[in-house]
Design a protein that fits this description.
- By secondary structure, this protein is of the alpha+beta class.
- The protein has four helices and four strands; from the N terminus they run H-H-H-E-E-E-E-H.
- The longest helix is centred in the first third of the chain and has 12 residues, at 26-37.
- It is elongated, with a radius of gyration of 18 Å.
- The model has no long low-confidence stretch (mean pLDDT 95).
Length: 116
């Protein structure tokens, strides 16, 4: 891809995704441009992963159930991927965290989790 084509694609992408002066390979620009072009068909796509493991401390052993949910959104606020992480411990502890990827690099880092 030549420089003019890459700049044109980045300008189109920049209308929906914050590129934050990032450096992107031709492949990454193509992936982001595909997201912009197909954003309506991807909007609302969700992928959930579940896992469990044992955690240890000096007093006891705990069983932990983790759930990670990734959701693609495209609206007037632009394109973003939300990642919600929930950990449920067998002793009743419940932990939640949420992050939103809005930059080109952040979206690329989570894109594989959505199988797009």
């Amino acid at each position: 891809m030549d420089r003019k084509e890459k700049k044109r694609l980045k300008d189109e992408i920049g209308k929906h995704i914050d590129l934050s002066n990032g450096r992107f390979t031709d492949y990454e620009v193509s992936r982001l441009h595909n997201l912009v072009e197909e954003r309506d068909s991807y909007d609302g796509r969700t992928q959930t992963y579940r896992s469990s493991y044992k955690a240890f401390d000096s007093e006891d052993t705990y069983h932990v159930e983790d759930t990670d949910t990734y959701t693609f959104h495209s609206d007037e606020d632009g394109i973003r991927i939300e990642h919600e992480h929930v950990s449920d411990w067998d002793d009743g502890q419940h932990d939640e965290s949420r992050e939103v990827a809005r930059t080109g690099r952040g979206i690329l880092n989570l894109l594989g989790k959505l199988k797009i």
